[in-house]
Amino acid sequence: xxxxxxxxxxxxxxLANKEQRGYITPQEFNLFADQAQMEIFEQYFYDLSQFKRxxxxxxxxxxxxxxxxxxxxxxxxxxxxxxxxxxxxxxxxCIAFNTDIPDLYxxxxxxxxxxxxxxxxxxxxxxxxxxxxxxxSKLATFNENRPVFVKRDLQxxxxxxxxxxxxxxxxxxxxxxxxxxxxDITTPTxxxxxxxxxxxxxxxxxxxxxxxxxxxxxxxxxxxxxxxxASEESELVYRILTFAGIAIEKPQLIxxxxxxxxxxxxxxxx
Length: 270
Fold this sequence. Notes:
Elements: H1 5-18, H2 26-52, H3 59-73, E1 76-80, E2 89-91, E3 94-98, E4 104-114, E5 119-122, E6 124-126, H4 128-136, E7 148-154, E8 157-163, E9 171-172, E10 178-179, E11 193-200, E12 209-212, E13 215-218, H5 233-243, H6 250-269
Parallel strand pairs: 6-7
Antiparallel strand pairs: 1-11, 2-3, 3-8, 4-5, 4-11, 7-8, 9-10, 12-13
Helix pairs in contact: 1-5, 2-3, 2-5, 5-6
């Protein structure tokens, strides 16, 4: 479902040439391509938020929401260990770990299991302020049946704290020593398991090339296609041209692009 970066670049070059705006270098194109892809990607979430606010069960809007969700689903992941974390450290009374997902865009649902307690569940997200209020309240609390998590920033890295830290229900450890009920879990086999779903960023698009006789020639092995839905090709061309300072109306763009495609097909037949 990816969009060919070479197709987009060739269309951009052809349209730039048609408008007599000169040559767009591979370096310039790659810069504009990354910016265009991220704008379209982030627009998905804005549009989804807006359409979800439409009251009623409008069939047309529900179809649009479904289409947007389908486009976002390409970037959804479920990861056991929540961010490449294999060891969940104790930090006071909570499980704490730093996410180690370099392409993380948005963190979704976090689930935790407490093997020694036979408990598991989805964590409720609280802001630091909400967590502070919750800890002072006698009515609303958290436990292994109702775990919560709080996001914090640790020197620019996302840190997750899950409450409560798991307790044992009493067992004999590897050294034959009885561990009483309610003790902190210290053995890896009894630590809580954490899983999370998240949305990653699309990979940076790149038109790779080799220089032959002072001319840049496309190199597919060094390239990275756009990861957006195939339907976004025209929008990518339009935005890249806009970033390059080439103003062109979308209907005109579609018409010219269709003409270029037809000319290419005729050339291949010949």
